[in-house]
Amino acid sequence: MPDTKIDTKIDTQFDFKANVRKALANSQLRSNLKFAMGSMTAKRKAIFSDAEAFEALRAQGSAIRRRALLQLPELLERLEKKCTENGIRVHWADTTDEANRIVLQIIQDHHATRLVKGKSMVSEEMHLNHFLADHGIESLETDLGEFIIQLDGETPSHIIVPAIHKNRQEIARTFHEKIPGAPYTEAVEELNAIARKTLRRKFCEGEVGLSGVNMAVAETGTLCLVENEGNGRMCTTVPPVHIAVMGLEKVVEKLSDVPPLLRLLTGSATGQIITTYVNMITSPRKPGEKDGPREIHLILLDNGRSKILSDEQLRQTLQCIRCGTCLNHCPVYTRIGGHAYGFVYPGPIGEILTPQMEGLDKTGAIPTASTLCNACEEVCPVKIPIPDLIRRLRNESYDPEGSVRGHGFKRTLAEAAAWKAWALVNRHRGLNALATKLAAVFGPVLPRIGPLGAWTHGRTRPVFAGKSLHDRVKEEGIKNA
What we know:
By secondary structure, the chain is of the alpha/beta class. Helices cover about 50% and strands about 10% of the residues. Strands 1-10-7-4-2-3 form a six-stranded parallel β-sheet, sandwiched between helices. Strands 8-5-6-9 form a four-stranded mixed β-sheet, sandwiched between helices. A hairpin with a 4-residue loop joins β5 and β6 (about 220-225).
């Protein structure tokens, strides 16, 4: 069967307002999202039908993640030591560029040109596929959703369901146009068969396999991967070399920490008690074993995580287990989809993670994509206070002395002067009285001009009282007013 045609060019221009307008104008996109989100939220609700038990499980999951973050440097050292003892080679990468170079070096050391990939958000952070393509390496996504969007030259629209923005007809056209010899069919079983036939040959041809890591256990040096399609297991066992890429924060202390987090992850992500495949990888193939890779490499990526860890409040961002349920319940994400956010992580988790990784000056518009309705916090399986962190980042956008990279980028001289004037007026009684009278006269006019006019397009204009409370009290003859 001829090779599939994969377009590796992706538009990296970011204009959030333009992206939102484009998404809102796409009625098919909104219809697709509405259908998919309804199904996913219903499955999650059914699996966590006992509210009291779910809250207890959330508290346990949150405690596990907070405990791990409090001792993260020590746990990472223990993980490295244990993995090394098990025969897993551990590599450290401060940046995505460094991580990409490590992956490339491993591939080149084995004179390989074909890589098969399981689902990995960290590899998306690295833009690994495009980096490898530039160096003559074929990197094929084998998760069905990732495979679909790779054929279309797109990035994932969702953390768990990469092709959630597409319907059956769109996928049918993609397969027919991009996979040579594939007939046009809208039957789900036939579409799955086409993908299976294409990918099965690629698994056999793959010289190196790459995966993400859902959790790494410091106690045993075990890498835990969950999936439903079996592609992750194929990527980690069929090729002779397995590369696992992992964010620093994914480590947990003990093997006993895994079951409650798995229960929260799978229930929140896909509405399952447990996924079809749970892979616990502790070592390469041992003498006498019939399958498994002969080499395993673990790449631990920082990419700004150490900076996030150093802030006591923002550290809570790193509790995330990448279940995607905050996306499914967000009234903004469910209307615009993931591509509008312009970066790897969309939705509420992206609103707090992306600005810390990329800098507020580049991504400061993203934290504004929230109604602060608290839905994301209410459903988060590890109790991340996402709305509080969004407010923190919004404040940092104006704070010249903030701690997040790119802080204060929205602050202007005009705004600084306005706030100083406000403080002056409220410190002096006479100026306050004068300002109150002027507001009564000119208030009805002001919201129609400039930024205030834009603010009132979607809000009721404030109505200023004709008289202040002090004036009204005096008119009533009340003393000491």
